[in-house]
Amino acid sequence: MQSPAPSIDSALVERLLRAQFPEWADLPVREVDPQGWDNRTFRLGDELAVRLPSAEAYVPAVEKEQSVLPYLAQRLSVAVPEPVGLGEPGEGYPFPWSVRRWLEGTVAVRAVGLDPVRLAGDVGAFLRQLRGIASTGGPVAGAHSFHRGAHPSHYAPEVTAALDALGSGVDRAACERVWDTACSTRWDAAPVWFHGDVAPGNLLVDTAGAGRLSAVIDFGTCGVGDPACDLVFAWTFLDGSARDAFRDAVGLDADTWARARGWALWKSLIMLAGSAGPGARDGHEAVLRAVLADPVA
Questions:
Q1: Do the Cβ atoms of 236 and 287 come closer than 8 Å?
Q2: Is-above-0.90 flag for pTM?
Q3: I need a surface site. Which of 19, 62, 130, 294 has the fewest CB within 10 A?
Q4: Strand order in the sheet with 97-101
């Protein structure tokens, strides 16, 4: 049984800093908005950030990121988080935690006047560059990545259960065609780096400049394996010409796109069959419609 985290707030962060990093204890602590699901993030002064897993399932990401982020940062043109401290359990908080350099930028989901075609090209180029980094010794896709980077068929039981639960609320035959096609393909090349959670909340853009991608954050589900999981962004945030620009920039074959479509289908189905609230439900329904309407070329 997994241990839940205690209440994670600014007061906890201040106590942890006083106990383990007194050199930073006098810096102001401010909660970041928007917050992620897997971790809670707090800005520390002007140049640092504190990141704490919200539950035990997300703990493996802490030391993984401490190891892989410096390696990736030296090889990427876009900024990624730079770890500067690794905290230990304490002050009633049971998990390891980290301190990183603060990255300036606006999350893409909140950027006003964002050019989606430009962003799509930037993200596609980032993923192509990430894929090209030597992956020997990298963390092989598995439980630490919630099986992102593995074959989507890992989640076949969840897809079937979700379709059973949703019944006539979805076009089961269309969903099964997408899923069967996804599962009939496979990444036969050498494992490559994947991010694992390419979402608009993890993409920072420079809104003071040209609105270009300035940083990519949250590598908690990263690893080496099949890059198909990173293409879900095509349906969760892009459409039309932006989706086409992303396809062109990322440079992957039709079979990989078919598996990506399967990943997007899985996530939208399990969320719709689960506890997604009304607002979130609308979003997952839109993703499902996009997935079913967009055959892989």
A1: yes
A2: yes
A3: 19
A4: 29-31, 39-44, 48-53, 97-101, 83-87
Name the 3-class secondary structure at 194. strand
Q: Which amino acid is at 53?
A: P
CB neighbours (10 Å) of residue 85?
17
What average pLDDT values come out for the chain (297 residues) when binned by 10 residues?
70 97 97 85 97 94 96 97 97 96 92 92 98 97 97 98 96 97 97 97 84 93 98 95 97 97 97 76 92 79
Give me the count of residues in the chain.
Answer: 297
Query: Measured between alpha carbons, how far is 152 from 262 in angstroms, rounded to an integer?
Result: 7
* 95 close to 63: Cβ distance less than 8 angstroms: no
DSSP assignment of 62-83: HHHHHHHHHHHHTT-SSB---E
